[in-house]
Write a structure and sequence with these properties.
With 409 residues, the protein is an alpha/beta fold. 41% of the residues lie in helices and 16% in strands.
């Protein structure tokens, strides 16, 4: 007897659980969008409200990465390029990101009324503990740029147990002297607020070339609805005090100083040059006149680069816990122009703190060797050269005191 197998197609008149699959996909899509855009919060502090954006889950097993932006920027324009970079995602998925906006600096913030008294840099730093308490984080890894680096430094000095590590980009630890104050007054007469801020953010080469990045930030700042708020923050930053960091009174956590090799010229370092090189009052007055003229004609007379100022800052920190990273072709905002190099350095920094030990080396480090040489210190010279090749263990950077890592492709 022959048995034939027949193929029978069964169709459902009413498919089972049709809405469940769609709702699951919608939930996943909503979660991805929320992770990308972040959760925005208005956090009450003893000194007012802070706008904060949270990315990721509030897991307290590891410190959060807390960022603070520079003058003329907000958390999005300052850090989106870096933290959305492809190779940064390995770090992002392991840590919660907390982006803090200085008061009134977030995108779309309402303009302050005329005569509004803006907070000091010290007061803004005193607002950060409320952010940690709000999200129930005991410690953070701070990432600050310019004014944000100064604020996070203030916070760290006052709350050393709350910070496990600091990444300080383009930090200026010195207060503005009276010569710098006079030069700033001259600059405010000859240049618009937008151009003053751009000269703080970008190098002279970038401004002269009028790069696309410069153009986009010029348009964003000049058309900002909260331009008065930006001006108040700018004035507050220029009124900052010395951080008073010395070897015997410095950060207790690991620190990575970051600067581009074409960083903008910083006025605070110029006054140091004048006083060091002056032997009598006549030379002193001539130096002052040259200093003022260099601001009027935008010359580079008697100017130290921010890189030189970072070296000075580096010499004041604990050499056993401080790394100095100078990046080639980075301009004034290395987190925007060279996110790949900064991501690689940040990963090494985090690994040195004991996190992400199993993380492999990035493709950037596999494609080249990185030369490490110590920076010149004011209290002596120390030189050591190290080379990282593809065969380095786990991609971790070997420890070296007060090191300068010059990354170039």
């Amino acid at each position: 007897m022959t048995t034939e197998m027949q193929e029978i197609a069964i169709t459902e008149d009413k498919p089972l659980l049709t809405g469940q699959a769609d709702s699951t996909k919608d939930a996943e899509l909503a979660a991805r969008i929320l992770l990308d855009q972040g959760q925005e919060h208005s956090i009450e502090t003893p000194h007012g409200v802070l706008h904060v954006t949270l990315h990721g889950t509030r897991t307290t097993r590891r410190p959060a990465i807390l960022t603070f932006h520079d003058v003329g920027l907000d958390s999005k324009s300052c850090f989106s390029t870096l933290f959305k970079f492809e190779e940064m995602q390995e770090i992002v998925k392991n840590f919660t990101l907390i982006h803090v906006d200085a008061p009134g600096q977030e995108e779309g913030a309402a303009a302050y009324p005329t005569g509004y008294q803006y907070l000091s840099m010290e007061t803004i730093a005193e607002m950060i503990p409320a952010v940690l308490q709000f999200f129930n984080f005991r410690t953070v890894i701070g990432v600050g740029v310019g004014a944000g680096a100064y604020i996070l430094s203030k916070f760290t000095l006052a709350n050393p147990d709350s910070v496990e590590g600091l990444v300080l980009v383009n930090i200026d630890t010195n207060a503005r002297g009276w010569i710098d104050w006079a030069a700033q007054k001259l600059s405010s007469v000859t240049s618009s607020l937008t151009e003053q801020i751009l000269s703080h953010l970008f190098s002279q080469e970038e401004l002269s070339s009028n790069t696309d990045l410069v153009q986009s930030h010029r348009e964003r700042i000049s058309k900002a609805s909260n331009l008065i708020n930006i001006e108040l923050f700018w004035k507050t930053y220029n009124s900052r005090r010395d951080l008073n960091i010395e070897r015997n009174s410095t950060f207790k956590c690991p620190v990575m100083l970051v600067v581009g090799d074409q960083a903008p010229y910083e006025d605070a370092a110029v006054s140091l040059t004048i006083f060091v090189n002056t032997s009598n009052i006549k030379d002193y007055l001539q130096s002052v006149m040259k200093y003022i003229l260099c601001h009027i004609v935008v010359a580079e007379v008697y100017c130290f680069s921010l890189c030189d100022h970072q070296v000075e800052c580096n010499s004041k920190l604990d050499p056993t816990t401080t790394s100095f990273l100078k990046m080639a072709d980075a301009g004034g905002l290395p987190q925007l122009t060279q996110p790949a190099k900064l991501t690689e350095a940040f990963k090494y920094f985090i690994q040195g703190m004991g996190y992400m030990a199993s993380s492999c080396m990035t493709r950037l480090s596999r494609s080249r060797t990185t030369s490490l040489s110590s920076s010149y210190s004011m209290d002596g010279s120390r030189s050591r050269s190290r080379t990282l090749s593809q065969g380095s263990q786990g991609g971790q950077m070997p420890p070296s005191p007060s090191q300068t890592m010059e990354v170039s492709c």
